[in-house]
């Protein structure tokens, strides 16, 4: 799933996806509110900023990201999934524009 961000539309990214035979799901660029993973990335980013130094070596960074992922917890994922009907309705009410999510 991609929202048209430059990192997703880069030639190298497209080549990699083709080589791996990954089918991309088109996602409207004005509806990031429907993508709950953005909230997970936000939680992880805050956790990393609060618990790890800015200058971190690559191997340690991999461990830190795994740690942050584990800290998100299944409760957060369940709550995000449960919020989808409300998120969809908010986008409908906003005529496809931005919402509080």
Shape: globular
Pattern of helices and strands: HHHHH
Number of helices: 5
Low-confidence stretches: none
How many separate domains make up the residues? 2
**What's the count of strands?**
0
Give the fraction of residues assigned to helices: 55-70%
- End-to-end separation in angstroms reads 18 Å
Average pLDDT confidence is 86
Overall structural class, as computed from helix and strand content, comes to mainly alpha
Instruction: Note the main sheet.
Output: none
Q: Which percent band covers the strand fraction?
A: under 5%
Alpha carbon gyration radius? 16 Å
Overview of this structure, please?
62% of the residues lie in helices and 0% in strands. The chain is an all-alpha fold and 101 residues long. Helix 3 packs across helix 4. It is globular. It has two domains: 29 residues, no CATH class; 71 residues, no CATH class. The mean pLDDT is 86.
Could you give the topology of this structure?
Elements: H1 6-9, H2 11-19, H3 37-51, H4 58-82, H5 84-93
Helix pairs in contact: 3-4
What's the gist of this structure?
This protein has 101 residues and is mainly alpha-helical. The chain has helices at residues 6-9, 11-19, 37-51, 58-82, 84-93.
For this entry, give a set of tags.
single chain, 5 helices, mainly alpha, 101 residues, 0% strand
């Amino acid at each position: 799933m991609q929202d048209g961000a430059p990192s997703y539309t880069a030639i190298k990214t497209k080549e990699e996806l083709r080589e791996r035979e990954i089918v991309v799901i088109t996602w409207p660029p004005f509806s990031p509110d429907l993508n709950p993973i953005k909230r997970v990335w936000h939680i992880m980013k805050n956790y990393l900023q609060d618990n790890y130094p800015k200058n971190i070596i690559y191997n340690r960074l991999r461990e830190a990201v795994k740690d942050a992922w584990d800290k998100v917890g299944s409760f957060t994922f369940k709550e995000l999934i449960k919020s989808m009907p409300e998120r969809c309705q908010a986008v409908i009410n906003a005529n496809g524009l931005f919402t509080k999510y």
